[in-house]
Amino acid sequence: MRGRLLLVGGEGHPVGDPSSTARPYETLERFMRDHFDVSEVSYRWSTQDNFTVDGLPYVGEVPGAAGIYTATGFGGWGMSNGTLSAMLMADAIKGAASPWSGVYALERRSLGASARRFLTENTRIAKRQLGGRRASEEEAETLAMGEGAILSLDGQMAAVSRAAGGEVIAVSAACTHMGCTVAWNSDESTWDCPCHGSRFAPDGKVLHGPAVADLVTVERATARAS
C-alpha cells in the first residue's frame, strides 16, 4: 500500500534574516505532529511571495512599453489575485473600461496608506545592513560544512561558505540588484538579500530575482579562507 503525503504550509519570515530560518520549520513540524499522525518529514522548502507596501498587487500595462503587461506582488494569494489579474489584463487588451484598473495600476501612488509599513520595513533592513557582524579571516577558516559567513577582506565584503564536500567558496557579498549585503541561510544553504528578496546559491548563481546577475567570484587565494 502506497503512503500518503501531507503538505503543511505557513510561517512566513523576512528574506535575509538569519535568525528566522530555522524557527518556521520547527513550528510547522510541531503543529503537524500535534494534529496528524505522521512518520517523518520527507521534504522542506521555502517559496517566496512578493508583497507591495500597500498590500495590493500591481497589474497592468508597463509604462513606456506598449503591449507589455505584468502582474506581481500577489502576497501569497496567487490563485485569487492571478484570476483578478487575468480579468484586468483582458479588459485592458480589449480596450474595455474597468472600474478597478486604477486601484491596481503600476504607476499608482498610495504613500498615505502604506507609509508606516514602508518606513518600518526599510528601518529594519537598514539596521541589519549597518549592524551586521563581519567575521574575521580566522573565523572563516574554521567554517564547518554547511556554514557561511561574511568576511571583510581588504575593504571588500566576501560571502564565504563551506560546501558539503569541504570546498570553501567565496563570492562577493554585494547583491547584484542594488548592492545590499547578503546573509547566509543555514537551513537552505543560500545567500539571501534582505533588501528585495534576491537569493543566490553558494557559488553565487541567481536562484530568485529581482537580481539577474550572479554574485562575482572572489578568488580563494585572495580570500585566504581555505
Relevant terms:
Rieske Iron-sulfur Protein; alpha+beta; 5 helices; four-stranded antiparallel sheet; disordered C terminus; single chain; three-stranded antiparallel sheet; 226 residues
Alpha carbon gap, first and last residue = 49 Å
Alpha-carbon Rg, integer? 21 Å
Beta strand %: 15-25%
* Record field, number of beta strands: 9
Write the layout of secondary structure elements.
Layout: H1 22-35, E1 58-61, E2 69-72, H2 78-94, H3 111-131, H4 137-141, E3 148-153, E4 156-162, E5 168-172, E6 183-185, E7 190-192, E8 199-200, E9 206-208, H5 220-223
Antiparallel strand pairs: 1-2, 3-4, 4-5, 6-7, 7-8, 8-9
Give a verbal description of the structure.
With 226 residues, this protein is α+β, with helices and mostly antiparallel strands. The chain folds into two domains: 58-130, no CATH class; 137-223, Rieske Iron-sulfur Protein (3-layer Sandwich). The chain is 27% helix and 16% strand. The protein contains five helices and nine strands, in the order αββαααβββββββα. It has helices spanning 22-35, 78-94, 111-131, 137-141, 220-223, and strands at residues 58-61, 69-72, 148-153, 156-162, 168-172, 183-185, 190-192, 199-200, 206-208. It has a four-stranded antiparallel beta sheet with strand order 6-7-8-9, with no helix packed on it. A three-stranded antiparallel beta sheet has the order 3-4-5. The protein has a two-stranded antiparallel ribbon with strand order 1-2. The chain starts with 21 loop residues before the first helix and ends with a helix. 21% of the residues are buried. Mean pLDDT is 82; it is low at 222-226.
